[in-house]
Each structure stands twice: as C-alpha cells, then as structure tokens.
Amino acid sequence: MPSKRTPKALPRAYHHGDLRSALIQSALGLLRDEGPEALTLRGVARAAGVSQAAPYRHFKDRRALVAAVAEEGFRMLQSAMLHAAQKADGRLGLKQVAIAYVQFGHEHPAEYRIMFGPEVARHDELPDLRETSSAVLAFVQVGLEQLQAAGSIGAGDPAAMAATIWSMLHGLVMLSLDGQTAGVGLTLDQLVDETTRIMMFGMASRT
Amino acid sequence: MPSKRTPKALPRAYHHGDLRSALIQSALGLLRDEGPEALTLRGVARAAGVSQAAPYRHFKDRRALVAAVAEEGFRMLQSAMLHAAQKADGRLGLKQVAIAYVQFGHEHPAEYRIMFGPEVARHDELPDLRETSSAVLAFVQVGLEQLQAAGSIGAGDPAAMAATIWSMLHGLVMLSLDGQTAGVGLTLDQLVDETTRIMMFGMASRT
DNA sequence: ACCTGAACACCGTTCAAGT
DNA sequence: ACCTGAACACCGTTCAAGT
After folding, report:
1. Which residues from A are below 8 Å from B160, CB to CB?
2. Could you tell me the pTM of the whole model?
3. N or C: which end of chain A has fewer CB atoms below 10 A?
4. Nucleotides of C under 7 A from a protein CB
5. How many CB pairs under 8 A join A and B?
6. CB contact at 8 A, B196 and B165
7. Yes or no: is domain B13-59 CATH 3.30.450.20?
8. CB contact under 8 A, A167 and B163
9. Domain limits of chain B?
C-alpha cells in the first residue's frame, strides 16, 4: 500500500546520517525567526521534516538539543570576537572586541538568551558546552595578558580581570536586550564606549 | 502635573482571602523549592489549593503572573540594596550595595532568573514591572551623584555610569550562577571586591 | 462575584513496531 | 540502524456551569 504523502522540504541530509546537524540548523532557524519559545523538540523535528520521536536517536532529551544549539552559539560568538581582534591591534583591541561581543548579542538575541538560559545553566553534565563557553573567558584573558605585557594596563590577576570584563559585557547585552538601558540617553554604541573606557581606566590604575 | 499612581486592585476578601497574593506567594515558594521550571500556572494553582482555572480571575495569562512574581523580586532586591546603603556611608556605599546585590542573586537564584528572564523581557505591555525594575537603575544613579558631589568619583553622565555598574553586577550574578566564573581562582566575594575596585578607579579617573 | 470541571491543542518522553 | 505512530502525563487556555 503506497503512501502518497510527500513531505514538502525534506532535508537531503536526512538519509545520510546528518539528521543531528539538520536538527541544530532547524533549531537555529526557529530561534531566529520565532524566538526562544519556539525552540521545542517537536517543533524542531517538524521543521526538519521528521517525526517527533526522531530527535531522540541523536539527543538524549530536549536539554541535550538546547546544549548543542548553545554550543553552536558560543562558536559563532568566539568567531566574531576573534575576527574583531584581528582587525584591531594594541589598546584598541579590547574596545573592538567589546563592540563585536555586544553586536553579536543584538544580532542574535534569541540565540544569545539560549546560550545563557537556565536550561543549560548547570552544565556539570554538559562537558562540551562547558568547554566551548569557557573559551570566551580564556580569549579575553589572553588579550588582557597582552595588554599587561604592553604596559597598557596595570598588574593584577588577569583571570579576575577577564571575569570582570565578561560580566560587564554580558550584563550590558542582557540589560539592553531587555530594554533596561532605554532610559539612559545614550545609544548602545555610546554605552559600550563609556563602559570600555571606565574598565580600561580602572585596570590601568591597578598597581 | 500630578502623576497618578493607579493602584492595581484593591485587595478584597475572596473565598481564599486574597487569592492574588496567595498565588504570588505560592509561586515564590515553588521557585525557591523547585526552581524556575516549576513556575507553571497549574502548579501554582495546585500549591495554592485552587483549581487550574482560578488564577485567570486574577491574571490575564501566565505571563502576567510571571510579571507579578518578577515585580515582587525587584521590590525585594531594592529593599536589600537600600538596607546595605543605609548601613554604609560615603565611598564604601557602592561596595556595600554591590555585595548586597550579588548576594541577593545567589540567595534567590530562581527568582533572580525569572526577574531577568525572556518571558518578561519585552515589558512594553507590563508598565508596573517596567517601573519597579527601573528603580534599580535610579537607585544606583542617585548613589553615584552623591559620590560625584563628594568628589569620590569624577564627572560624567551618572545615568551612563549607573548603567555600567548595573550591567557589571547583573553579569557577575548571572555568570557566577551559571558556574562560568568557577575557573577563576577567586571566591565570589573576592570577585565582587575586585570588580568594584576596578569600577571605582575607572570612574575616579574620568574627568 | 468567584470558582470548578471538562475540553482542546500543545509539549516532552517512551515504546512497540515498521523499513 | 534508524525512524514512525500511538500513547501517557503534563501544560496553557477557554468556557459553560455551579455556589
């Protein structure tokens, strides 16, 4: 008995064992087009053209899919930061990276929220995500050590300084996405500028 | 022009007393005991001992309940900051408030996540929440203006500085809750200390 | 005026069965 | 080996009906 049901957009990866990647791509598309609340296991399966149970061949549960999506986000973020750093040099590096970081959050708001959302917060059981996300901190820290070597900023624990900077950038992205900085009479770029300047002055003064 | 503060709804005696307040209290209890994912409309109704449909007499939808819970959180946060500021004076104020802020996030992690979660992020339609949450920024700004008047920090737009500090504190709470600062060899208190110092130095240097 | 019970559409997850 | 269809328990929301 032949079934005449023809799926509209069956991803070609379907038959080649690439369903895992196809699901992540579908998830990224849903996030971009419909926001964080659209990131459901059934919705992603639907978008990928497979049954609701199919994702369980590739992800232990919904959290595992969300973690994979978050990982992909951290890779994109790191790439954006790296790109910004390569275009700058010396003292300007930190500012350029800061701008790129905040820009990434505003260009991919739903993705960014997933990356730092409660669903993947406890990543004790998600070693891949832990590694990918901690690369952000390491990246900032290396940059700070170069600034220290160049004498642009004072001595001090670079890990602590890196955590400070990351906290600053993360908070700025989240609060501005939430509209909490709307009352301040500055554009986002101006805020990033002001913020980076305060941080640079503060770290320069450390002995 | 008299700004009219419209009271939400006069508490009236229901069968359960004030069911609206009871639901919010139940929600806070669920958050504390079981985390953010336990904040469901049906679960809250169950915890309050009413039917699943009863909350709709008091909240338009789930989002309205979440917003009310977030509002309560911002009131608690502001109270903690105010209390810390009153115990300190002068330059020490900022540090004490910063410690109190971060402490609040770590004592009420699930509540804090709800306050800044995506469900209430777009608060264009939640004027009460908008007002309550923006009070945090105003509080910090007033403190900064006092520091400026005392000459402890340099000139500069206090609103921008306040946004910078709030971003810093918010990012620190979120990243430390997510375990992202675990790699840094410092305790949370030490991180707050380092962070506050950098900010104070940075703002002192502004001319 | 306030609340209940049933209903609907949706979701995460499991499992026997199909290819 | 990989996927499907059905099933279960849960959720948000609506609505007629009860007190």
Report:
1. 184, 186, 190-191, 194
2. 0.91
3. N
4. 1-7, 10-16
5. 173
6. no
7. no
8. no
9. 13-59, 62-201
